[in-house]
Amino acid sequence: MKEVSIWNLKPGDMLAKSVFSPSGQVLLKEGKRVTQPEIDRLRKLRVTTVFIREPQQGNAESDGQIRSDESDEQHVIRALLACADSRNAREMMTDSEAEKRFLDRFRRILSDLAAHSTLVGLLTELYRTDAFLFRHSLRVAVSAGILGAALGYDDDRLRELTIGALCFDIGMTRLPSRLWQNERVLNEKERAELENHPVIGYRLLSRCRDIPPASAVCALQHHERFDGEGYPQRLKGSEIHPYASIVAICDVYHALISPRRHRAAYSRKEAVEFLFASGGFYFDFSLVRTFLRQICIYPVHCSVSLSNGDIGVVSFVDADIPHRPVVKIVRKADGTPVHPLYEIDLRRNVDIVVVDLV
């Protein structure tokens, strides 16, 4: 079973889980092979993702799984072009009109970058070094683009930011993989070696004539922190380039919600709480607020479990408080179906929180 974007769903795919409407009604049952009209209907209803049964041999996902019949460089180009249509891009935005405007712009930028031989070469090297680092950079780039668009960046600035977000971890390609693939705590010498990757990455990008200087700064400053406690230069506040500040927030968010060798993934709720708590310390609080206003943590129509054990479907998301949606309850904690259905507004019921997606 795998979760796929509604935009990657194809006629003939078999549902691994039933799809629910905001009112809790079953739109399509588990085991159904979907047709194109059904896919179109789900899109109109703003369903963002579904779970399908995986064939024994399938096509690659848009966020980084390689096909056996393509070269590394071809894979990188394909993954880059698919960014705007990935689950990550389409699930993250709270405003449907803003989403459409952004994705149209982002596709044009990605199409341009896919023909950027230096950038493709750098990303291919990153992919060959570690596929996880490559996929992580794609996710960070999408989120950074969304935040940049929300800040009113024109296409030139959005392009620079996207390049910086794609290449911010390029310095890792020059370090031994044991430094980030290790399950134990690094010793002092190893930690110092790992923390040199921003400088290494910046020097590498600075030698590339067609990489904008502002993009290269993302590699150098993405571990700087608003309170001056970051590295390598211990910059603080406005001393940190805005692009690097954006990339830093997106990097931490996606690092938290992704599993690592030494820990399981944090829930989206926990990641949001961390960013809120870090505003004014690790990150510029105004940027954190803007980021969280744009990011749809719990998309409308997705199924969620609540801290009281109930299961429900998200029916409304307030852009100002995206981590506390309105949830239509469909099943109680003991498994009993709910009839009639009712809603819990987590903005008002502060003692109940979303635990995770179901």
Automatic annotation (TrEMBL):
InterPro entries in UniProt: HD/PDEase_dom, HD_GYP_dom
Taxonomy, superkingdom: Bacteria
Domain HD-GYP: 111-307
Matching PANTHER family: CYCLIC DI-GMP PHOSPHODIESTERASE PA4108 (PTHR43155:SF2), CYCLIC DI-GMP PHOSPHODIESTERASE PA4108-RELATED (PTHR43155)
Record protein name field: HD-GYP domain-containing protein
